[in-house]
Specification:
The chain has about 300 residues and is an alpha/beta fold. The protein folds into two domains: about 210 residues, Spore Coat Polysaccharide Biosynthesis Protein SpsA, Chain A (Alpha-Beta Complex); about 70 residues, no CATH class. It has ten helices and 13 strands. Strands 1, 2, 3, 4, 5, 6, 7, 8, 9, 10 and 11 form an eleven-stranded mixed β-sheet that branches. Helix 8 crosses helix 10 and helix 9 packs antiparallel against helix 10. It is globular. The termini are far apart.
Amino acid sequence: MSRPLPPDAVVAVVVTRHRTGPLHDSLAALTKQTHPIAHLVVVDNGPDQPAREVVEACGLPASWLPSWHNLGGAGGFALGILHALAMGADWVWLADDDGRAADEDVLATLVELARRRGLAAVSPTVVDAADPDRLAFTVRRGLTWHRSRAELAAANGADGELLPGIAALFNGALFRASTLDVIGVPDLRLFIRGDEVEMHRRLVRSDLPFGTALGAVYLHPRADADDKPMLRGHLHARDPDDPVKRYYTFRNRGFLTAQPGMRRVGVAELPRFAWYFLVTKRSPREFVRWLRLVRQGRLERFHRA
């Protein structure tokens, strides 16, 4: 049997659930890329409201993978990545269903930069879809938080094309297949929240070169609604209003901060969240709940919410 994909093939992997409108826009941006996409894999965590028609109408060679067991973002990307690798992908391009490439050259820019600089993985700069001058996810370098593209570029100094050691992995990041052999796939147990951080942790510890391409842009809804200010806005605490998201955020953070490479972060989180819940919110009950969920994560008790 011949190899199903051509040499040096890029396979795009998208995870979706009950969001056919944003998915349509995301896939439309993929079809316009100047660098060819050999195949598209869409993992559908909500086949009770199937996205199959959107996938089959996109114009790319595609596989629709329905999962009647909701795998979450973590399991969805794990399944999609493994499917892409099994097909013979040399590159895997990851995207969620609520983001999209800003122009037709995003993939070409990522591939060229990864080849020329020998990168194991590279992501575009993820910006607020409603205000592309702002970052969708605030980027911390040292003790400084950057909220705009201009701040990020200025802080990077003379290198105007690559921000090393930082990447948004599930929002347009391009991986070599050999990189995924080293770092693995997302951890199904995390379900949602923290799965991307855990993959980033593994990528950092692998000592493989990676970064963010400053010349490639990916549009995504701004994602700071869960970050609640404290100490007059000098610090923040991630405290989602949605109880399900809150459960996974706190529990998974407990697991993450117990892992090699993140333990010092965990030491700093206790006083920060103690101040947030006891002083800013004045809610001892919520602080006790936070402690319980963090401990649950540290003990690797990954029960679903």
